[in-house]
Amino acid sequence: MIEKKIRRFKIRILAGVIFLLSFLLFLGTENILSGEGKPAQSGKIVVINPAQGGKDNGISVDGKVFEKDIVLGLSLSLKDKAPNCGFSVSLTRDKDADLTLSDRITMANMRSPMAFISFHVGASFDSAVRGIKIYTWSKNLGMLSLGTEKKFKSWTDNTPGSQDEGGGEASNETAVAAAGTAPKLKIKPLSEVQEGSSEESQKLASAIKDEISKLPDIPCTVEHAPLADLGGIAAPAVVIEVFQASNQKDKSALLDENIKDSIASAICKGVGNYLSGKKIQNEE
Amino acid sequence: MKNRVIIFLAIIICAGFLSCAKEEKEKPVKTEEAVEEKLLVDEELSLFIPSGGVVVPHKSLFQFLPEYGSEEKIKAVLVRLLKGDANFSTVFQSAGQSAGQVSGPGAAGIDVLDVIISRENIAYVDLSRSFMTRNPAGITSEIEAVNSVALTVLKNFPEITGVMILIDGKERKTLAGHIDISMPFRLSDTDNSQGVQ
Lengths: 284, 197
Hints:
The complex is a heterodimer of chains A (about 280) and B (about 200).
Chain A: H1 2-34, E1 45-50, H2 67-81, E2 88-91, H3 101-110, E3 115-122, E4 132-137, E5 140-141, E6 144-146, H4 153-156, H5 175-178, H6 190-195, H7 198-212, E7 220-225, H8 228-231, E8 237-244, H9 248-254, H10 257-283
Parallel strand pairs in A: 1-2, 1-3, 3-8, 4-7
Antiparallel strand pairs in A: 4-8, 5-6
Chain B: H1 2-39, E1 41-51, E2 54-64, H2 70-82, E3 112-117, E4 122-127, H3 130-133, H4 139-156, E5 162-167, E6 185-187
Parallel strand pairs in B: 4-5
Antiparallel strand pairs in B: 1-2, 3-4
Helix pairs in contact in B: 2-4
């Protein structure tokens, strides 16, 4: 009789523990689904690249404020907000520093991020063009397509000095070299690295665009181009061109801290939503 | 008296011969000029001009010498597109100033240093550094500049299969830090619904 009671008691305790664990598990899933108000998870690292820096000021917005400062401010703001959106941010630079494109790509790939975002400020030949443009990598550029090989011997030798040092690194870099491992093991053009993530990059861009589009009077489009920032990134990756400094209205927005803060929040939510969706897919 | 008449007639006859000979020499020159004027070939081509974040075709009349090959024609077309002339003011002349670009622009317009076509019909277009420094330096403006040059060549000269942009005779990884120009651009096989971007 007493043994029976003890057995029932044990079963009830066990059932209670199972119920409690199930409840906690349910709460955890709810947090992931909501995309906000959850603590950062160690595995969800997003690398943010504030473009330019150091000697490279980038675009001048008003003669005093430069692209390098605006993108750094946005990146730091996003880093602060990121834990509330369920991810953590790793920056390629957190201060005014000179970095080559290769440095940035290598840093990003070595951190094995779940996503990569590069911030730029835009400008157009036409001052009427305005808004935020989110780019994913593509070898296509409108009606054009970037070729994969050159066929003119005198320009294909890749002899030292045949390329201009200022503005571009050698075109025969390898993905493996960018990832920081021995380049002799595998040779793959940088541009082919991002091709493997193109579908996920498109989802990431759409998720960010959905959130930015909720902000009033800020046009936002997703576009595609053979961008050097993205070609070598072995993760879902986008470039966000934050406003066009050639447009007067956008120029004012670039100098408005409240607008920039709301954009950082929107990007945070967008990335959080994308990573939540990714989690669900992985579980399935 | 008789001698004087003979001398007079001789002078007149010589003068007549000389004038005829002179006319005969001038006549072919006039004919040659007329032929040359006739042989200048009129061609209406499209310059792809940046406008509204895309590039828009703009018809322009060219007069080429008959002996001009594709290289000379492409160079002439790009000079008008990038440097402008008496009849055409190009957007590239004032570029780089509206965005308050850091790198100061040099002389107005962009010089076309050379155009060479490879055996595989890829046009190597060598432009002065101002094509890079006068760009407003946004991704959008780089896309506009690359599209403008490459489409102007590829759409007007169907024999050209690709356009490789060089700056001061050298390859560059990017134009002004964004768009990959390390390889030749070709016309895309797939139709992009965004239009002539």
